[in-house]
Fold this sequence. Notes:
This protein is α+β, with helices and mostly antiparallel strands.
Amino acid sequence: MTWTVVEDVTPKKAARAYGEIGQPVFPCYSRGERAKSPLTKRGLHDATTASGQIKTWWKRWPEAAIGLPTGVNFDVLDVDVKGETNGAVHLSTLQRLGLLDGCKFVVATPSGGWHLYFTASGIKNKSNANLGLDVRGLGGYVLSPGSVLDTG
């Protein structure tokens, strides 16, 4: 799978592009207290690559954030940097242990953290709020580049 950075793309165009390269997507709220949560009844289980469904969703919700189910094409290490939590302090240790060697690309998150993308490995979700590190694998999702959030 090849990923390309595209400037000034709308969520609708980005969602369609993900579907075209075989990455399932689903729409999520982009505003308010429900931001980041799915707009569809089954959430990540509704994710699809079908262009017709993607067009329908983003016609209905043109500003929807783009949910990408993890564990399909990739897993994500979510490095949180919020308040007193700073997962970034653990990155040098993870690097030294070789645990970041398979990282394909890194995406900055709005909160100042990062999503590190790896080839899907069958791992399940793991979370450690104390460390500021979360693994998103089978049964998880992240919001993709191309999403625009307004959390007030």
